[in-house]
């Protein structure tokens, strides 16, 4: 599953946004990237092997005994620094405080952002001061954009241990600091079908669950209709470019063979006369198969088996519009 997500991001990042434009579009959802994740981090000293990188590994676990918190010795003015690799206009830093001991140690820490390594970067511009953070809590500090490649956390004026369970850094001014993925437009949308067998309604194919065992209640099922069909209403028209179908995995694999995907705005003949997008030659047992095509403008997506009496089973149908809106 993790691999699937990574591939998905790699394949589709960038299709959702333009170089200079807004983030979310109706067909894409975007999240600000944590620029510190996996970046190089250093600190004034390291206590018991708890290196600076433990604060940028993507794990907020606040129990220092679990190995995901950085930890200095009781240095004078202890500090920690991450190198973002290039200059960003930093607007937000989140710090996860230690939860298993000494939450007050973080009190008075300063967040500094800039491009200088003078005094280890601790003379860079002051962005915010950490008055306190409760044990194990992640607290977010927002400020006006500060240009910088380095983000420091320093506790000035005393001898102290600096423990950071996670530091996340964001710069929300440009699209390059966001990751955008296409939304599944069919998820939770209204779906109907030519008839319903055994209570297996059309909505089961848009419930966000690909479970392909029809006995688990997440697959739609028509009767053996002549030319059975299923249709989802996206709520408005999109330039649809991609449909994924999850076939039933507990038998009856061949029923889907010859199904057509149709996209358009008409409800004439229940939408089955809308523009032809792709034919499902076959889909193996329980597999999710993706059909891509040039954008077709449409609010309705139909799955339709023409020319015979058949049961139409769909365990999940996902619909995407990968172009910029
Ligand atoms: Ca961590
Ligand atoms: Ca389902």
Automatic annotation (TrEMBL):
Keyword Metal-binding in record: yes
PANTHER family associated with the record: FTP DOMAIN-CONTAINING PROTEIN, FUCOLECTIN TACHYLECTIN-4 PENTRAXIN-1 DOMAIN-CONTAINING PROTEIN
Pfam family, one: F5_F8_type_C_2
The protein, known as: F5/8 type C domain-containing protein
Positions of the F5/8 type C domain: 165-322
Swiss-Prot/TrEMBL keywords: Calcium, Disulfide bond, Lectin, Metal-binding, Signal
Record-level Gene Ontology MF annotations: fucose binding; metal ion binding
BP-aspect Gene Ontology terms: regulation of cellular defense response; regulation of complement activation, lectin pathway
Family designation: Belongs to the fucolectin family.
InterPro entries xrefs: BG_Antigen-Binding_Lectin, FA58C, FTP1, Galactose-bd-like_sf
Xref: SUPFAM superfamilies: Galactose-binding domain-like (SSF49785)
Signal peptide segment: 1-20
Purpose of the protein: Acts as a defensive agent. Recognizes blood group fucosylated oligosaccharides including A, B, H and Lewis B-type antigens. Does not recognize Lewis A antigen and has low affinity for monovalent haptens.
Region span, Disordered: 52-71, 198-222
Comp. bias regions, Basic and acidic residues: 57-66, 204-214
The protein's assembly and partners: Homotrimer.
């Amino acid at each position: 599953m993790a691999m699937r997500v990574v591939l998905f991001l790699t394949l589709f990042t960038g299709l959702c946004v333009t170089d200079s434009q807004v983030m979310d579009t109706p067909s894409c959802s975007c999240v600000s990237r944590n620029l510190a994740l996996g970046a190089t981090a250093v600190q004034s000293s390291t206590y018991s092997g708890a290196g600076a990188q433990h604060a940028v590994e993507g794990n907020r676990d606040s129990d220092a005994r679990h190995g995901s918190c950085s930890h200095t010795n009781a240095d004078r003015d202890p500090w920690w620094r991450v190198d973002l690799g290039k200059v960003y206009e930093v607007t937000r830093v989140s710090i996860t405080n230690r939860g298993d001991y000494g939450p007050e140690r973080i009190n008075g820490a300063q967040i500094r952002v800039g491009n200088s390594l003078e005094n280890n970067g601790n003379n860079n511009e002051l962005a915010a001061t950490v008055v306190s953070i409760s044990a194990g809590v992640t607290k977010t500090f927002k400020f006006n954009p500060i240009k910088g490649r380095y983000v420091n956390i320093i506790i000035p004026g005393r001898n102290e241990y600096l423990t950071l369970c996670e530091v996340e850094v964001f710069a929300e001014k440009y699209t390059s600091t966001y990751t955008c993925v296409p939304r599944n437009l069919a998820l939770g949308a209204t779906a109907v079908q030519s008839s319903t067998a055994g209570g297996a309604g059309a909505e089961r194919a848009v419930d966000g669950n690909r479970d392909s065992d029809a006995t688990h209640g997440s697959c739609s099922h028509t009767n053996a209709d002549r030319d059975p069909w299923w249709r989802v209403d996206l709520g408005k028209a999109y330039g649809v470019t991609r449909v994924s179908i999850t076939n039933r995995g507990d038998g009856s694999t061949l029923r889907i063979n010859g199904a057509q995907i149709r996209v358009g705005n008409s409800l004439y003949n229940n939408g089955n006369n809308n523009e032809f997008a792709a034919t499902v030659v076959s889909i193996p047992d329980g597999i999710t198969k993706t059909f891509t095509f040039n954008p077709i403008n449409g609010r309705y997506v139909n799955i339709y088996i023409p020319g015979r009496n058949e049961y139409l089973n769909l365990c999940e149908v996902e619909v995407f519009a990968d172009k910029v809106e």
